[in-house]
Amino acid sequence: AQSVTQPDIHITVSEGASLELRCNYSYGATPYLFWYVQSPGQGLQLLLKYFSGDTLVQGIKGFEAEFKRSQSSFNLRKPSVHWSDAAEYFCAVGRDDSWGKLQFGAGTQVVVTP
Amino acid sequence: DAGVIQSPRHEVTEMGQEVTLRCKPISGHDYLFWYRQTMMRGLELLIYFNNNVPIDDSGMPEDRFSAKMPNASFSTLKIQPSEPRDSAVYFCASSLGHSANTGELFFGEGSRLTVL
Question: Which of A44, A51, A107 sits opposite B100 (nearest CB)?
Answer without folding.
Answer: A51
